[in-house]
From TrEMBL:
Residues 25-104 form the Carboxymuconolactone decarboxylase-like domain. It comes from Melaminivora suipulveris. Keywords: Oxidoreductase, Peroxidase. The keyword Zinc does not apply. The keyword Oxidoreductase applies. This is Alkylhydroperoxidase. GO terms for molecular function: peroxiredoxin activity. Gene3D superfamilies: AhpD-like (1.20.1290.10).
């Protein structure tokens, strides 16, 4: 059974909140970098998040999977778009990436079900 990605990002966000008080300058810098990287440009937000999910699989980051699949659901990403990005991650990263692609798939389904329940 996969972990709950809602719980992972909730717990991670709480810990980041603690760090914000301890290394505020660093986190403000990280936030500025994130805003600059994600703003619309030649690539739209969904494309950038698909890149982020592939990289999250590549580096095997569970909290990253949670944050980026949640963002993809909010941006209207389809399962087909997600799985094509995951296919590229597996192709480039081999077996270990396949294991985390399965986790990313589970995270996407978790957030999509949550969004559907709120909408319905």
């Amino acid at each position: 059974m996969f972990p709950s990605y809602q719980e992972i990002i909730q717990d991670t966000s709480a810990e980041i909140g603690k760090l914000r008080g301890e290394i505020g300058d660093t986190l403000r810098g990280f936030s500025a970098m994130a805003q600059a990287a994600t703003k619309d440009g030649a690539l739209d937000a969904k494309t950038k998040e698909l890149i982020a999910i592939a990289l999250s699989v590549s580096v095997r980051c569970d909290p990253c999977l949670g944050y980026h699949t949640q963002a993809l659901v909010k941006l209207g990403c389809t399962r087909a778009e997600l799985t094509e990005a995951l296919g590229m991650a597996v192709y480039m990263g081999g077996g270990p990436s396949l294991m985390y692609a399965a986790r990313a798939s589970a995270a996407f389904d978790e957030f999509a079900a949550q969004a559907a329940a709120k909408a319905g």
